[in-house]
Amino acid sequence: MPDPERETYEKRLREVFDHAELEFRKIKKDFDRDVQERWTGAADYFREWKDFLSEIRADFGGHFDHGSAIHAVRERPPSLPFPDPQFSRGRPRGREIAAPF
After folding, report:
1. What angle, 0 to 180 degrees and rounded to 10, lies between the N-to-C axes of helices 66-75 and 4-29?
2. SS3 category, 60
3. Phi, psi (5° rounding) for residue 33?
4. 6 Cβ neighbours under 8 A, 6+ residues apart
């Protein structure tokens, strides 16, 4: 049976991620040549090592990927309310997408 509350939450999560991607595109557009080359090199590096890094990242601080987040939302007990996803500006290097717990 469909869970409209879960579907609404998943939609909100996608909206937050889409918004963050659009905001970053605006910033990236203004990179100078040196920064663009360094960014591209770093992105290539992480793409090359993605599988390895994905396997070990949870060993360092409890990180989990988008698929894990969606799984947690889908498997939550029906009595547990959905929190609103939030942007947090508490980090020195920018934003973090977080739930309020």
Report:
1. 160
2. coil
3. -60, -45
4. 73, 74, 76, 82
